[in-house]
Amino acid sequence: MSDDLYREEILEHYKHPHNFGELSKATVTVREANASCGDLIELQLLIRSGTIAKAKFKGVGCALSLATASILTDDIQGKTVESALGFDEQRVIALLGTEVSPMRRKCVLLPLRALDKALEKISK
């Protein structure tokens, strides 16, 4: 896919994010913020039998942080908590499908930081 198509997909996820909203019976809820730019993500997971049954998020931020949250919540649903623990920067950037400048990495990685925090709470 060309970079233009990836940019279009990112903009589509930003304008019409998947999994945006609240879970009524979340197993875990976490908030993560990027103090340098003001982005804020609240991530909620519903865990059933060690699997991420549902993932929702809400928040405010730039196109990259919200699009990444949308794409990441799509990807983790149906995965085991154990496999989601293995998600890293490379996985998230691969999901976006385009290179991210060093200045924008914090935006893209904010949803991953929220996921890590949520999984850490579950694992305790």
Protein architecture, described:
By secondary structure, the protein is α+β, with helices and mostly antiparallel strands. The protein has a single domain (3-123), classed as Sufe protein. Chain: A (Alpha-Beta Complex). 47% of the residues lie in helices and 22% in strands. It is built from five helices and three strands. It has helices at 3-15, 63-76, 81-84, 89-96, 105-123; strands at 28-34, 39-48, 51-60. Strands 1-2-3 form a three-stranded antiparallel sheet, covered by helices on one side. Strand 1 and strand 2 form a beta hairpin. Helix 1 packs across helix 2 and helix 2 (63-76) packs parallel to helix 5. The longest helix has 19 residues, at 105-123. The radius of gyration is 14 Å and the shape is globular. 31% of the residues are buried. The mean pLDDT is 92.
Which properties best describe this structure?
5 helices, globular, alpha+beta, 3 strands
Structural class: alpha+beta
Strand content: 15-25%
Inertia-based shape? globular
Q: Roughly how much helix do the residues carry, as a percent range? A: 40-55%
Name of the top-level CATH class: Alpha Beta
The H/E string reads HEEEHHHH
| Number of discrete domains | 1
User: Helix count, per DSSP?
Assistant: 5
Radius of gyration: 14 Å
* Known CATH architecture: Alpha-Beta Complex
Q: Reading side by side through the largest sheet, how are the strands ordered?
A: 1-2-3
How would a textbook summarize the main sheet?
3 strands, antiparallel
For this structure, the CATH topology is Sufe protein. Chain: A
How confident is the prediction overall: mean pLDDT? Answer: 92
Could you name the ranges where pLDDT drops below 50 across 5 or more consecutive residues?
A: none
Cα distance, first to last residue? 40 Å
| Total beta strand runs | 3
